[in-house]
């Protein structure tokens, strides 16, 4: 079954990529794809440099299982994320989307949620971010469900 896009609309779907990148989507939303973990330092430095730029922004982080497996020291990663979030408070809104199998790492998902990031799953087909360009503007959303902490 195909999806029909109404006349005057455009749909842009963004998913994980093996190469890390930081790019601005047409909506103005920034997408930080951490890649497959082979260039871990570059991916982490990209987000640290990004928050130094200082104006109001929204950045969606895409994390995939290969990146999380390459992390090694998760506590060190979470500490770096904490520093980024603290340095960008009141300037940058952060949201993390865990693509596919990465969502099995609920420990990291919970840690990022506790730091104040919005945390989402990707859609089942791997889509992480969707922009819908309508005649009256652009809507940005995450097609996967919101990460919920289950009560014990």
Portion of residues within helices: 25-40%
Might you state the CATH topology name? Transcription Regulator spoIIAA
- Just name the CATH architecture: 2-Layer Sandwich
Round the mean pLDDT to the nearest integer and report it. 87
**Low-confidence runs (pLDDT<50, min 5 residues)?**
none
Features of the shown structure:
152 residues, alpha/beta, Transcription Regulator spoIIAA, 5-stranded mixed β-sheet, 3-stranded antiparallel β-sheet, 4 helices, 8 strands, 28% helix, globular
Please sum up the structure shown:
By secondary structure, the protein is α/β, with parallel strands linked by helices. Helix content is 28%, strand content 29%. Strands 2-3-4-5-6 form a five-stranded mixed sheet. A three-stranded antiparallel sheet has the order 1-7-8, with no helix packed on it.
């Amino acid at each position: 079954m195909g999806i029909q896009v109404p006349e005057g609309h455009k749909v842009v779907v963004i998913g994980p990529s093996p190469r890390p990148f930081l790019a601005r989507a047409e909506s103005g939303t920034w997408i930080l794809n951490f890649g497959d973990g082979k260039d871990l330092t570059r991916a982490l430095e990209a987000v640290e440099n990004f928050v130094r730029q200082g104006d109001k922004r929204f950045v969606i982080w895409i994390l995939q299982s290969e990146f999380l497996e390459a992390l090694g020291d998760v506590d060190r990663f979470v500490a770096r994320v904490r520093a980024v979030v603290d340095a960008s408070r009141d300037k940058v809104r952060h949201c993390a989307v865990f693509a596919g199998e990465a969502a099995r790492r609920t420990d990291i998902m919970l840690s990022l949620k506790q730091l104040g990031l919005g945390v989402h799953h990707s859609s089942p087909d791997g889509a992480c971010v969707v922009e819908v360009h309508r005649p009256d503007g652009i809507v940005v959303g995450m097609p996967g469900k919101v990460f919920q902490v289950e009560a014990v």
